[in-house]
Structure formats: structure tokens, C-alpha cells
Amino acid sequence: MITINNLSKVYRTKKGEIKGVDNVSLTINEGEIYGIVGYSGAGKSSLVRCINLLERPTTGNITVDGVDLTTLKSEELRQARLRIGMIFQHFNLVSQKTVFENIAFSLKAARVPASKINDRVEQLLEMVGLSDKRDVYPGQLSGGQKQRVGIARALANNPKVLLCDEATSALDPTTTKSILKLLKKINRELNITIVLITHEMDVVKEICHRMAIMQGGRVVEEGKVYDIFASPKEELTREFIESVISFELPETILKKVSGTLVKVVFKGEVAGESVVSDTIQKFAINGNFLHGSIDYIQEQPLGIFVMELTGGKAEIKKALDYIGKRTALVEVIRHGV
Amino acid sequence: MEFDVNHLIEFLPEINLAFMQTLYMIAIALFVAVMIGLPVGILLFVTDKGLFWENRIINQVIGFIVNMIRSIPFIILLVALIPFTVWLVDSMIGPTAASVSLSVAAIPFFARLVETAFRKIDYGVIEAAIAAGGTPWMIIKDVLLPEAKSGIISGITITVVSLVGTSAIAGTVGGGGIGDLAIRFGYYRYDDTIMITTVVILIVFVQLIQLIGDKIAKVVDKK
Fold first, then answer.
1. Which CATH number belongs to the domain containing residue A282 in this structure?
2. In a structure prediction context, what are the per-residue pLDDT tens digits for chain B, which is 223 residues long?
3. Could you tell me if A158 lies within 8 Å of chain B, comparing CB atoms?
4. b/e per residue, B166-188, with b = 16+ CB within 10 A?
5. ipTM of the assembly?
6. A136 with A282, same domain?
7. What is the maximal distance between C-alpha atoms in chain A?
8. Residues A95, B129: C-beta atoms closer than 8 Å
9. Looking at the structure, do residues A224 and A279 belong to the same domain, yes or no?
10. Which residue of chain A is at minimal alpha-carbon distance from B145?
11. Residues of B with Cβ-Cβ distance to A79 under 8 angstroms
12. Yes or no, beta carbons of A96 and B132 under 8 Å apart
């Protein structure tokens, strides 16, 4: 649905040139929810703004639904934007216009006849659960309600793509959840491809199918969310994952541990299996769970456990090999003394 | 300093006429300033860097003309515009003639205030309208003007108050008005009664305009 090809965006400042986006290539499939994660300044916001050409890339091109946007003239680009919805961190509603007028703006842009605007706005308001707020001004709405208006405005012309620029970053956790639920519903029921940029890893974990991690304008890691959570390759990715799934052991516990500390990752169905008890029965070792949890990412279980193994060095090595064969990943954090 | 009530009563018709002349001049100048200054203010804003009609040449040419008119002292502008005034209204004295130069001075003044009101709009709102596929005209009409409405009303208030002051100078060409009266009688003839009265009228008038302007700006704001 979206192909980003060797895209770079260079900003000229007094201090010289800054590469906001540095040679990024990504493919986002139809019907997918794609997350782009990074700290502020990583270039994710510039990247998403290039997708609908709010920012014009310095080099490279963007193809959305088969059309290379970088070749379009202004009126053609305007038409193309009708098919690409966008929502924002600070909602960006017109404060002096009612909810109805804010949504109607998109329809007027698509030259929908006035007689049809009313019905369509009401339909959209029903979808986002704000039918009773039709004639209210944005100032009287909560953050979550404002974002719902933003979503209704973005979806007014049945776009194929919805871009979300930190759409939940200004919302509290409960409201974030409800907005994510709405985005999920939109993705499923309307088959809209969603590109979501965020610095919150829980958002990605909650709804994204695939993701990219950005740093310094570059994509450092990319893939299925589940795979990235199960086996992150880059240090930055680990950092982000630890922000939602943390296995830090308290210092006092670490001091008491004398055996080999290992981290075991179970994927998919294997998570339910009793790999650990099998191991302890098979080898002359003892196991002691120190930390662990099973998370569900895209409805697939991902189990991560930290345990202490005690016993002979040779036996532990054999046990580790055995666990390694049956699980996704086993990693020695610290060898026993 | 002396205040003579009888003298004041005797002078009332003249004060009344002067006040009407002031209103007349301000009304014309304000009307012209809004009709021309508003589009000029919009143009200054939308042709600036990063906006949808970005155009360096237009922006700088308009900016230069606006600055130029604003930098000329009003009394000089008044005299310089005499040929234009005569051509336009076939006269160089009286309130109508004075309105011409008052209008010319008020246009760039108001245009800058409009531009400032637009600059206060959160750029994200404009960006969202562009992303939604809005045409430039739609964005001006449905986003920029509504969002800046309160600021534009404050700009009108400031323009009117400034016109009250400037219109006094118009008396130099026999423009008439309260300010003119204050200068001719109060200042040149040491007529304390007239001076105090006209100054009080001007103070009350300006306070009222500010009060009403602020009130309207607040009422129309839906924030």
C-alpha cells in the first residue's frame, strides 16, 4: 500500500545541514497496522509527514496505493490527500468551529454535495461514538473526544491510509486504550492501512502488526512486532522493549544468586509447555525462577523468564543446550561462581 | 485653569458637530482599512515562508510598501496625498478629504495586525487542513479567518483607537473633528473649557471603544 523508497529529508539550518530522515526504505502492506518507534528527534515525525507530503522529501519517493506522490502537481496532490487521513498528537481541530463543521471540512474538500454532508457526518460521529457532540465546540471536549473528532475528520472520505502522528501521546492511559481500540476496529472493519508513529512501546505492542525502530533518521531494525519483542537485535530496540517488559532484578536478589543466571524466551505455543520442568528432570541441576511473565502480542503468547540454574558446570551447559533447542532463545546473563 | 459651564453650553453644537465629524472620518477609514487591509494581511501571511502560497517576491514587495507607508509621519502623508485626495474626492479640505489619508494610513496598520492575528494560529491546525485536502481558499475561509477572528476584532479595536488620535492631526487640512477642536481652541487659544471638555470626550470615547472591542473579541471566541 505504501512504499517508501530511499527517502531522505535534509533540513537547512544556521548550523548547517541536518538529516531528519536518512535514506529510509520501507514497505507497508495493505490492511496492516505499522508502528514506527523512536525517541524524539529520531526522524519518525518527519518520515510520517513525508508520506502525505506535508514535508517534501529532499530525495527519494513515496508511493501510496500505486501513485508516486512526489511526481504530483498541487491539485493532484490535494486529491491524493483526500485518500490519506491523518490524526495528530494535539488533535489540531479548528477551535472556532463545531465538531460538525470540523468534520464537514474534509467532505467539502472532496466536493461532497451539501445535501449529503449531514448524513455522512452523523454516520462518522456514530462510528467514533460522539453522536451527542455534533454541535459542540472542541474546547468543551476532553482529549479523547477531540481525538475521536480528529479520527472522524480523517476518515470522512473513506481513505485507504490513516497516518497517526503521536496520536495518543497527549492522552492518559485509559483514554489511550480506548483510542487504540477504535483504531483497531477501524483497521479491521474498514480495512484501512494504519501507519502509527509513537515513542510509547505499549502502543506498538497493543495494536501493531509490524514495526520499525528509528534513530538518527535511520531505520535500525524492522520486522514483525512479535519477532522484534521475542528477539531484538539492536541495543536501542532492547531499551524500548524494556520500557514495557522489564526484567531488572533487585540488587539484593542479585547478590544472593550464586548459580548461572539465564533468560529464557518462549514463543507461541511452546510458552505453555513445561520445558523447564522437563529440563530439571533430565539433568542434574536445580532451577529457580526469579522473574518472568507471559505477554500476549498480537494474541500470541510470548513468555520471558529469568532463572537461576545451579549444579555442575557440564550439566548446566547440557541443560542450556537442551532449553535452547526447545525455546526461541536462551541467554546467559551471568555465569555461576 | 478655568472651566466655564456657560461657555461650554454655548459651544455644545460645535462640539457635537466635531464629534460627528470624528465618527464620520473613523467610520470611512475603518471601512477602507478592513476592506483592503484584511486581504493584504492575509496575503502577507499566506505568501510567507512555509505557507501554501509561499512567494518571496510578493511577500517582500507588499511588506516593503506596508512598512514604507507606516514609516511616513502622518502629517507628511497627509500633505503628500493632497493630489490623490483632490483627484479622488475633488476637495482637499473637510472630513471627507481627511478620510482619504486616514484610510491610506490605516490600511497597512490594520494589515499588520491581521497578519499578527494569523501568526498566533497554531500551525498544526493549518497543517491538518492541508492534510485533509483543503484548498487554499477553503483554508483561508474555514480555518484562518475563524481561528483569527478574535484577534482580528482586537485589531479593529486598536485601529479605531489609533484613528481617534490620528484624526486630530487631520484638522491641519481643516479635517474637523474633536481632536481638531481640542488643538484649535484648547491649544492655540488657551480655551481651557473646550480643551478639558474635548479631552474628556476623547478619553471616554477611547475607553468605550476598548471596552466594547474587548467584550466582542471575548464573546466570539469559542476556545
1. 3.30.70.260
2. 678 888 888 888 988 999 999 999 999 999 999 999 999 999 999 999 888 888 999 999 999 999 999 999 998 998 899 999 999 998 888 888 899 999 999 999 999 999 999 999 999 999 999 999 999 999 999 999 999 999 999 999 999 999 998 888 877 667 788 878 888 887 788 888 888 888 899 899 999 999 999 999 999 998 8
3. no
4. bbbbbbebebbbbbbbbbbbbee
5. 0.86
6. no
7. 81
8. no
9. no
10. A96
11. 133
12. no
In terms of domains, do A146 and A262 share one? no
Residues in chain B: 223
First to last CA, chain B: 50
- Domain containing A108 — which CATH number? 3.40.50.300
Q: Is A56 on the interface with B (CB under 8 A)?
A: no
| Whether A207 and A268 share a structural domain | no
Measured CB to CB, residues of chain B less than 8 Å from chain A are 122, 124-125, 127-135, 138, 142-143, 146-147, 149-150, 221-223
Domain boundary, last residue among A222, A242, A262: A242
Binary contact (A109, B124; C-beta < 8 A): no
Burial of B152 (0-12, 13-18, 19+ CB in 10 A): buried
Listed residues A185, A220, A242: the one ending a domain: A242
Interaxial angle between packed helices B145-169 and B5-46, expressed in degrees from 0 to 180 and rounded to the nearest 10: 140
CATH 1.10.3720.10 fits B5-220, yes or no: yes
Cell numbers that stand for B17 in this block: 458637530
Q: Give all strands of the β-sheet with A161-165 in edge-to-edge order.
A: A84-88, A161-165, A193-198, A33-37, A210-215, A218-224
The helix (run of H) or strand (run of E) holding residue A304 is strand A300-311
**Cα angle: A100, vertex A103, A105; to 5 degrees:** 110
Q: Are residues A281 and A145 in the same domain?
A: no
Domain with A8 in it: 2-242
